[in-house]
Amino acid sequence: MINVGIVGATGYAGCELVRLINAHPEAEVTAISSVSFEGKELSEVYPSYLNINDMVCETSAEVVDKSDVVFAALPHGLSQELAADCKAKGVKFIDLGADFRLESEDEYKEWYGGEFLDKELHREAVYGLPEFFRDEIKGKSIIANPGCYTTCSPLALAPAVKNGLVELKGIICNCASGVTGAGRKATQGSHFPELNEGFHAYKVACHRHTPEIEQTLSKLSGEKVTITFVPHLLPVNRGILATCYADVKEGVTYEQIRKAYEDFYKDEFFVRLLPDGMCADIHNIKYSNYCDISLHFDSRAGKLVACAAIDNMVKGAAGQAIQNMNIIFGLDEKTGLTITPPAF
For the residues of 303-319, what is the DSSP string, one character each? Predict the structure, then answer.
C-alpha cells in the first residue's frame, strides 16, 4: 500500500483527497495536517467522515515522516519549503497549489508576487496534466497539479491548437465555476445572500490562471499563445464549464476538427467527447474525474466553440492529483478513480 499524507486536509481539496483515497485499493491515508484544526479529528471538522476517518490533524513534519507521497493542498507560497523537505527524505510530492505550476519565475513574480526559493527544485518539477504530459510525469518526484480552470480550458482547446486548425490569436476562454473553487474560508463573495440567485464575472482579464493556460497551449502549439480569460462564479457547490472560442483557419472544415478531437482523445479514459448536438454540462460529471467536451461550429462567424465540463474538486484538483500519483507509482492511471457520476 502507498502511504499517503495530506497537508491541508481540512480545506475543500484536502477533504476531497481523503474521500477519494478512502476508496483507493492501493493507497491509504496515514497522516493528515491542518494549521487551523491541529489536534482535532477530521470527523470533527467534517461529520460525514465519522467512523470513516477519525484521524487527528498533526504537524506537516509528522505527515512527511509517515508518508510515501505527500499531497499539499495549500495556498500559494506555502509549498516550496515542504517540497524541499520531502525531496530530502525521498518522499514524492504533489502540489495542488500554484508554487510549481509556472515555469517562468518572472511570471510567478508578476502574478503571485513570490519568487523561486530553490531554482533546481523548480527545474525538477513536472506539470501534471496527464492527458498531455504523462510521459514526463512518470517516475518524477515533484508534480505541479494543475488548477481547475487550467485543466478545463486546455482540454477544450488542445486538439484544435496542436493540429493548427485554429488561429492562435483571439482565443477566448469564458469559464464558470462552482463556489468551492474559492476555498473554504468565508468571504463576502461566497456569502450565501451575495452568491445565491446571482451570476457574475470576476477578475476579468487579470486572473492568475491566465499565464498557466497560456503556458500549456503554447507548449502544445509550439508558439506563444495569448488568451483572454474571463472567469465567472456560479451559485452551485462544484463544477466548471469552460466555453472556449477560436477562429477557424481558412479552408478548415468542421469534419477535420471533429476528426482531430476523436484521434487526440481516443485513448483517454477520462475525456468523453460528446456526440454532435449534445452540450457539455456540469451536472453529468459531478463527483467524478471525467471531462466532457462538446464541439460546436459557428459557420457564419467562422469560429469553433469548444465546451468542457469538469468537477473542479475532482478532475480540477484531488482526482487529477491521484491520477498523477498513480502514474508516478506505476499504477493503472484509472485506479481508484472510476467513479460513475450520479444521474441526478
Answer: EEEEEEEE-TTIIIIIH
Q: Which residues touch 305 (CB under 8 Å, ≥6 apart)? A: 243, 244, 245, 295, 296, 297, 298
Euclidean distance between CA atoms 1 and 24, whole angstroms: 10
All domains of the chain in start order, with CATH: 2-144+315-328 (3.40.50.720), 149-312 (3.30.360.10)
Other CB atoms within a 10 A radius of the CB of residue 179 amount to 20
Which residues are annotated as catalytic?
148
Alpha helices for the chain (secondary structure H): 12-21, 42-45, 60-65, 80-88, 105-112, 119-124, 130-137, 149-162, 192-195, 210-221, 254-265, 319-328
Closest CA to 29 of 341, 318, 315: 318
Return d(Cα 239, Cα 282) in angstroms, integer: 5
Alpha-carbon torsion, ordered 107, 318, 284, 53, to 10 deg? -150
Which three cell numbers mark 247? 477562429
Tell me, what's the pLDDT at 271? 98
Cα distance between residue 243 and residue 157, in whole Å = 10
Q: What is the pLDDT of residue 339?
A: 93
pLDDT at 121: 95
* 86-136 tens-digit pLDDT: 999 999 999 999 999 999 999 999 999 999 999 999 999 999 999 999 999
User: Cβ neighbours of residue 258 under 8 Å, at least 6 residues apart?
Assistant: 276, 295
**298 CB-near residues (< 8 Å, 6+ apart):** 304, 305
Least confident of 1-15, 66-80, 172-186, 258-272: 172-186
- Nearest CA to 279 among 156, 148, 172? 156
